[in-house]
Amino acid sequence: MQQHTHRYHLRKAIQAAFLLMALGSTSMVLMPTALAEDYAKPATTSYQIKSGPLEQALSEFARLSGISITLPPALVDGKTSSSLSGNYTIQQGFETLLTETGLQAIETSKGVFSLQKSLPVTKGQADMQTMKEVQVVGNSDQGAEIATGPVKGYVAKRSATATKTDTPIIETPQSISVVTADQMRNLNAQSLQDALGYTSGLASGTVAMNPAIADSFYLRGFQADSEFGSYYRDGMRFMSNIYNGKQEPYGLERIEVLKGPSSVLYGAAAPGGIINTVSKRPQATPMREVNAEVGSFDRKQLSADFTGSLNDDETLLYRLTSLVRKSDTYIDHSQDDRIYIAPALTWRPTDHTSLTLLASYQRMRNSDPGTLPVAGTLQANPNGKISRGRYLGEPDHDTYDNTTTTIGYLFEHAFSDQLRVRHGVRSYHSELNFEYFLMGGWADTAQRRLNRQARLFEDDTSIFTTDTNLEYKLQTGFVQHTLLGGVDYTKSKHASDRERGNLATIDVYNPVYGAAFNTLPWRQFRTNQDRTGFYLQDQMKIADKWVVLLGGRQDEVRLESLSLHSPADNTNEKERAFTARAGLVYLAENGLAPYFSYSESFEPTSGRDRQDARFKPTEGKQYEIGVRYQPPESNIMLTAAVYELTRKNVLTPDPTDSTFSIQTGEARSHGLELEAKTRIGENFNLIAAYNYTDARITKSNIAAEVDSRLSGIPYHAASAWLDYKLDGWGLSGLLVGGGVRYVAEKPGNAANSILAVPDYTLFDARVSYDLGSWRYTMNAFNLADREYIPSVCLTGVTGCNYAAGRTINVSASYRW
Length: 816
Known about the structure:
Elements: H1 2-24, H2 26-30, H3 35-39, E1 45-49, E2 52-53, H4 54-65, E3 68-70, H5 73-76, E4 80-81, E5 84-88, H6 90-97, E6 103-109, E7 112-117, H7 123-128, E8 158-159, E9 167-168, E10 176-180, H8 181-187, H9 192-195, E11 202-204, E12 217-219, E13 222-224, E14 231-233, E15 236-237, E16 252-259, H10 263-266, E17 273-279, E18 287-295, E19 299-309, E20 316-326, E21 336-350, E22 353-366, E23 399-414, E24 419-442, E25 449-476, E26 479-507, E27 520-542, E28 546-563, E29 571-586, E30 592-603, E31 618-629, E32 636-653, E33 661-680, E34 684-699, E35 716-725, E36 734-743, E37 754-755, E38 760-771, E39 774-781, E40 793-794, E41 807-815
């Protein structure tokens, strides 16, 4: 009966998903036919512009094409243009009008161009025209998109996260979603949760940590965050525990989500996948922007991003990204302040060598709003509903003060057309002072006064990580091989000194603050971990039709855990694991690319069983079948995938002695994911995503758990975002956009006192207007002001969290 029910849910999920896609955009259904050919062609406009003064010709060109052009008088005075007659793209039109003027037009933002002097073509740039295989690309503005560079629009075509090589996404036999800087900008993403809100396969919000101070997700049914080794920056491990804070989206070029087990290239990690963020890096084309933003909850923010060349031959490039914010939040007596500074420098002494230095400083001064009782939020309370913004701690003792610094480099050198080396190093350090409260049970039978606990701790985390690999390309008959071999190493240290104490009770419905906040030393932890992995991979492209991917990795993890308050609990363990991956892709000429893959992961498991044997690593195994559709030369990427993901060696109570555990537990997740990203013409962008996830406990020595759903994982989640530039309506520079996000009910787990939460639907919107080098924007989140609980609730001391209500931010940006 249960199996029949599962099949029924999956069948209904597939029907609902395809209906969603069809309703989202009729063009998506028509795309595989003749319309795809039109979208692959750049838009042209008919012009009849006579030769004459350059300023007059460019003004007419801007009017007819619907773009904006910054015209410094000193550059155009006395210059004349060639005539322009016929159908041209914008690029062709500029090339014709600016012939022999010594000027060029640079697109500084979508539809906004700046007139600048033409840069001389250096010998290095000329060589790049004929030596693209040897070129070490540090900037996508030198040509086509590269795996770590910027993307114009929402549709990325290349990625390095899945293979550690610059590979077309359509040739990758594993699901991967890429969120570009343009998408983050248009969504006005303030966190990874915001940025990934329109991505399939993810569910945000966990009971482990408040989302105000940490990024945390479920990915394909399993928790994915820094605690589980799920976060990477520039391909190297980033953060090591849940207290390391949040990442600043403004400092990112892209966010890439690799779904499913990924240990074959990255080592120990949860089976759901990894999230790799890519830092903004120096670009040769000058770009300078300054942004000012105000919004709900007294939000005030300034940010700036500058990049360009420091010398004429473009061998030395720079970038400086910065942000400062002062803001309250929807919770009473709370703050969300941040300072972020990220300088970067690239040195390219030759066309074959690149060295990029990356550093960052981030300080978060936030509040932990704590939680609210279940009675009064998720369930009824005789005293009424508890306010969404209610804070039940002590305002003078509510501090999350986190400072994070990083410094490192990325080096790449091409020895020849076939052989290149990559080497990366980063040092990461995080310091945290954390003062907060924990909710206790009710202090009275009237469910009005609440018991509380005072908590305080200091945390210190340091991580040194390095990754070195060699890539070798060779041809054997009609098979093109891209061989990759490498070694990575991570050393992390975590020190935590914790205190606790009691707090006076508080009236939930009429809080009076000022209680004494006294704490005493409670626990002291010291954790040292060393991870070393050796990996080997072969990407084989056969007759330009088939791609075969094979990979394997050997890992060794050493973990020393010291409990200074209880030395008897000290551990010193070593784990070894081998993981593998295999995949196959077929590349059809029309842009269809069906694929199949098998992948593995592992996670160290601390502790020993009843017979004093050390636990084995937890294992993840996934089978995935999918298909992508990307017509040649188009801005379209459609993806569909089905998968079965199993986590084995899960701890479950020992039936002989329940005070011990054994590794006979198992959890399984299977599902369907659909994702679409497309740009139609010059003005219309669409993002749509849907996922059906059935995640369950399949083996456990607790009978009630068997076949129960994993808590917090909804069956269904769907989203769609559309934006449209109204140039064709005579409203040049005006863009309107809107989105909808739906999340089904999140199940609980009665055996663990976890309560389910209802489904919810959210609406977002954006309006922006470009005027020359200026852009004015308004973004709205949760436009309908829906009151909802984003993650499951726990009875007792954990309780529930509300999410923010309607939030509106307004900004002005100047780019030149």
